[in-house]
Amino acid sequence: MSDVWNLGGAEICRGALMKPGRPTLDAMTAAREDGQQPIVPLPERDPAALRAAVAKLDTAALAKFESDWTAAAAQARDEYRLMPARYFVEHWWTWVAVERWPALAARLRDCERIVAESADRNARRAAAAEISGILRRAESATT
């Protein structure tokens, strides 16, 4: 992975966003190389397994999980479609895939803060690109 991003003609050094000790897009791989393990194993893509993982990762998020599940089930029932439930499962599975690696989850929140608060357009773009990479890696996780 290059240490310089070219975003719309503007080159940005990854170091401009990264702080010492912060994980990068390769945090999941690097954590394994450093001997770190995720807090929970990657669950199956079903509501019961996801609920158990969310409960272990963040009990405060459990209320939002339950609320989202109730809304998705009601929408699926009302519309006679499975897509609301599928979206719910994919959303929460990705959340678990990130949150089970605390350093990666912290970096995601840092990038979200940069996108929301930074006056520097290039920093916002770089942070948005990093968010995209973190989510893409999480969505492709298999272990």
Description:
64% of the residues lie in helices and 6% in strands. Residues 1-28 have low confidence and may be disordered. Strand 1 (4-7) and strand 2 (10-13) form a beta hairpin. The protein is built from 6 helices and 2 strands, in the order ββαααααα. Helix 4 crosses helix 6 and helix 5 (102-117) runs antiparallel to helix 6 (121-139). The protein has helices at residues 27-33, 47-57, 59-79, 83-99, 102-117, 121-139; strands at 4-7, 10-13. It has a two-stranded antiparallel ribbon with strand order 1-2. It has one domain (4-139). The chain is globular, with a radius of gyration of 17 Å. The protein has 143 residues and is mainly alpha-helical.
SSE topology string: EEHHHHHH
Query: What portion of the residues fall into strands of 2 or more residues?
Result: 5-15%
The global form is globular
Main sheet overview: 2 strands, antiparallel
Q: What is the element layout, followed by pairings?
A:
Elements: E1 4-7, E2 10-13, H1 27-33, H2 47-57, H3 59-79, H4 83-99, H5 102-117, H6 121-139
Antiparallel strand pairs: 1-2
